[in-house]
Amino acid sequence: MFLYIYSTVSLLTLHIHIIIFNISKCPAAIFDYLRNVYHCEVVRILFARDKNGPGMSVASRQHSQESFEQAPMYVAVMTYLGFGIVTLFGYFRDFLRAVDLEKCHVAQERQEQKDFVPLYQDFENFYTRNLYMRVRDNWNRPICSLPGPVFDLMERVSDDYNWTFRLTGKTIHNVINMGSYNYLGFAENNTDFLKTVADVTHQYGVGVSSTRQEIGNLSIHEELEKLVANFLGVEASMIFGMGFATNSMNIPALVGKGCLILSDELNHTSLILGARLSGATIRVFKHNNMQSLEKMLREAICSGQPRTHRPWRKILIMVEGIYSMEGSVVRLPEIIALKKKYKAYLYLDEAHSIGAVGPSGRGVTELFGVNAADVDVMMGTFTKSFGAAGGYIAGKKELVDYLRNHSHSAIYATAMSPPVTQQIIRAIKCIMGNDGSTEGERIRQLAKNIRYFRARLKEMGFILYGNDDSPVVPVLLYMPGKVVAFAREMLERKIGVVVVGFPATPITEARARFCLSAAHTRAMLDQVLHFMNEVGDTLCLKFSRRKYSSQPDLHE
């Protein structure tokens, strides 16, 4: 009965939103006010664009291509209302569990251990047991095929409201993959393309079972490091077997106590973990906000360390090339200018940008036309554009030599698997055109897909975040009920999407995150767009109040 009431209230909330959405099209006073506010914002944006003029710099032009449109006020109100209703029912169900009127499935303390220090904090698990469990079927879906542009899913159902799942034995075939980081389409099983990988597997096996400092240093590891350095245009590079550990285990080797880290507020968890493990002082500046960064740099130089006011041993600025939740691109030329002005160091994480942006896939340094030597530490991963695993650190030879002797990943971690190493070599050679293929062919296809997909979604009326060159395309859904409904409706139409909500995003900015690939055909994208338009109308997801031309180049 309580579950019926809970579902009824959630459905009522969705109907109230649809009513308000339709009312918004009428000339009511509150919506006239919202339209006036929006009109002022458009005038401001247009004025800023005209002020830059046609001769604006690459950095200014890239920044002007980023969009972070705000939703109407009623959307925020309905989002908070939805979370409020779900939270109230969560506390009510916790009460029912406490008095044994509802069975508790979640892990809890044993009765004889009630006086011990609690192992499971009830409040910390509140979101998991009362909110996440209701929608858990939208994540961790079992895939039973190659995760290329399409894949197969194993169908599963739950008999206890997502606490457990059982497989039905059926397979959902040819689901279009819009969630994987397969930017250049190298997650493939073409035997002609993978012949060199198969040969290396026969020669070296699949594992090394040793660190590179002992007996795990293979010739193909050194070949890959030279190839990465040549590809990036730097003196040297070093590879690691895990992308996450490339950040979390190397940052502590570069900075420590007495050092200052200035970190973008939207940096990845691996960067945050590495900064915390280092013992350095961490200060967070607003996302891509140069005024906030410069203010912190100026204060750091003027005031020095707390209490002692001694100068900082190092000041390290940590940013990402493309931010994976927002789809925004770092303002690299301006950050380099600030770094030089205040004698700081720059750590650039290109996990999502290397291979995906720039005319030849060399990342944001190529996109902005800056010198790679101006970036002190270049980091990237092979897990996305290269269809493999692991990561790298690149820069001056002194930096790489230092990390070989001080990095925990270099000293204690097992060396990269030989077939993975060869897959990365194959991918980089293909990007560079060294294997006989046309240089940059996949990169150009990816860029076409990105522009086409983003432009069509904007025309439909969806609110998108990020840069027009970013392969990460966040579509804002806002309300928790819509997030769940969107993922389920798209899967019914054989479209696999990734939906993200609180606490991974701000509470009012839940979204679906699309990842474009060079392997997506125009027919695939048109099919996804067709169903996006259909589901967007059904769930009332078209919140944008801006008008976009079908020919943006002519419009500009």
TrEMBL record:
| Enzyme Commission number | 2.3.1.50
Q: Where is the Aminotransferase class I/classII large domain?
A: 174-530
* Secretion signal, residue range per the UniProt entry: none
Cofactor dependence: pyridoxal 5'-phosphate
UniProt key word Endoplasmic reticulum: yes
Q: Which GO terms describe its biological process?
A: ceramide biosynthetic process; sphingosine biosynthetic process
Give compartment(s).
Answer: Endoplasmic reticulum membrane
What name does the UniProt record give this protein?
serine C-palmitoyltransferase
